[in-house]
């Protein structure tokens, strides 16, 4: 299959497609479940961290002194949030190469084991009152480990799901990666909301916030069991020499890796709007509503839950639709919808006269537009890379987009809002990046969803 413009050129290591990784006999649903389970655990933790960003700022980072910027502790908490994202590209390279060379299972088992350990340790970590100045550094260290794991998770999981998808269902199977992201974020928000409703504010701030983090232990162990049951290596079998082509083959590229680098850069452009809008509306929203609009913690959690419900509801239909009409029209519709509707959404949320049902519907719709990007997105990335570099390539594109446009979303939005006093900053951030992403998505080929993976 010929890749889209900017996709990795199939060099000597990329052919033939029939012998690439994950071609061993694994039932599609089993591969789907094993791949999705780790995504759920990963994003559950990120959802919990986003919901408790204000509590973590209070417990781990120096409170603002008299006369100092009151946003400083929250900015520090978001900086530690961003650290995990900037370790994602390194994780994508490390675990992606392991998955491409030694097998999807080995990489995915190692990733979920380390992620579960790091998340559990965050729940046990002494705060600044107990450990002093070491507390925030220990938190940042654990966030870095999580970032490495998250960087390797996406590439391996998406490759596993899409390579085992039945014909014509790659978009649907890949969409499960995004769907379990939504489920994880919803579970994180639900765990935070339940904990907040059962405990007093003092108990929640003192020790209750740890409970949702500790719940990652049984969740991670379940995912670990599912992944260890997958067939092991080898992922690649020796391939017979292909029959001589009737026409002379084109001259090889001077540097075989250049095609992959181009595909990674193009992949970042195609999903940066997805990254920015997803984190702005689904993760950063609770703290934004509290710090900027004066909403209570519980009101912010309800708003975030509604947005995530809309997100979850649209992902699988968007993936199925992309199998029928192609990735381009579905993802373009999502990017343009965010670009056009982000500002009216925030205006509606700030309007004291707007009816509660109208605000709830707007939050559901905002999440649904992000789902139009997230549903076809994993399959679109998988179709850009040959099997020999698929885990590394798509994982690196996703990690870079998330590091720059998601991990920094809370930091950028909070800092710019505090500096300018403009409450519309989140809308500008998500809208502009989705508009730019739409330009990159316009170059997608219309028939990539019909062919076999290379």
Task: Outline the structure in words.
The chain has helices at residues 28-51, 53-60, 72-86, 88-102, 104-124, 128-131, 134-163, 170-198, 201-208, 210-214, 216-228, 257-282, 285-293, 297-325, 327-350, 356-374, 377-382, 390-405, 409-420, 425-441. It has 454 residues and is mostly helical. Mean pLDDT is 79; it is low at 1-23, 234-239 and 247-256.
Question: How are the secondary structure elements laid out?
Answer:
Elements: H1 28-51, H2 53-60, H3 72-86, H4 88-102, H5 104-124, H6 128-131, H7 134-163, H8 170-198, H9 201-208, H10 210-214, H11 216-228, H12 257-282, H13 285-293, H14 297-325, H15 327-350, H16 356-374, H17 377-382, H18 390-405, H19 409-420, H20 425-441
- Class computed from helices, strands and strand pairing: mainly alpha
Cα Rg:
22 Å
Low-confidence stretches: 1-23, 234-239, 247-256
Helix content: over 70%
First-to-last CA distance: 6 Å
SSE run:
HHHHHHHHHHHHHHHHHHHH
Mass-distribution shape: globular
Question: Main beta sheet: strand number and arrangement?
Answer: none
Count of beta strands: 0
Q: How confident overall, as mean pLDDT?
A: 79
